[in-house]
Amino acid sequence: MSDNYKPGLEGVIAGDTAVACVDQGVLLYRGYPIEQLAEKATFEECAYLLLNDDLPNATELATFKKELDSFRALPKQVVDALRLIPNNVPMMDVLRSMVSMTGHFDPVSDPADNKRRAIWLTAQIAGIIAARYRLLNGQEPIAAIPGLSHAAQILYQAQGTEPDALSAKLLDLTLMLYAEHEFNASTFTARVICSTMSDLVSAIVGAIGALKGPLHGGANEAAMDMLKQFKSGEEAKAWIKDALANKKKVMGFGHRVYKNGDHRAQILEVELRKLAASKNQQVWMDIYDAIKEPMVNEKHIFPNVDYPCGLTYYLLGLPLDLYTPLFVAARITGWSAHFIEQAANNRIYRPLSKYVGPALRSVTPISVRA
Ligand code: SDX
Question: Which of 57, 68, 91, 277 fits as disulfide partner to 321, beta carbons 3.0 to 4.6 Å?
Answer without folding.
Answer: 91
